Amino acid sequence: AMNVQFYPLVVKRDWPWISQELGVKLCEDTKGIVAVDTESNAPVAVCVLDSWSRNSVQAHIRIIRKMALRHGFLEEVANYVYGTCGIDVIIGVVPGNNEAALKLDKHMGFVEKYRIKDGFDNGVDYVLLEMRKEECPWYSETLAEKHHGR
Question: Which of 48, 50, 69, 86 could disulfide-pair with 32, CB 3.0 to 4.6 Å?
């Protein structure tokens, strides 16, 4: 069975493979969580967080191995953003032609709020998604408190 450990994103260590896997730009305020298979030391999932406002953050999520989801990756992300950082809204922006990402995001609990016509490319919308703390299936205050207490 796979064992997964979660680490804060460390730019020096993690950015080379993240930029390859996710193709996101490194921002001044980039933070994140990396899930690693403890046996192979290989990353199995990552959540990059940037463009922080007082009450929201933009998330870029890449699941390399679906098993990471069963090992509490989304709970870890939710507890970090909603609990540790005290943010209420996670925002996702996905190209409208990336069916796999949209399907996964909606499965994770993101809700489509708006489509920016041709926002990604001519003929390809940008889909704006959100996950609010009060609607997030992966977040519980009690778990967050337990988290802080360890």
Answer: 48
Residue 37's CB is within 10 A of a number of other CB atoms, namely 19
Global confidence as pTM: 0.89
DSSP character string of 84-128: IS---EEEEEEETT-HHHHHHHHHHT-EEEEEEEEEEETTEEEEE
Structural tokens at position 57: 């953050």
CA distance 16 to 64: 15
Instruction: With cut-offs at 50, 70 and 90, classify the pLDDT of residue 1.
Output: low
CA dihedral 9, 97, 64, 82 (to 10 degrees): 40
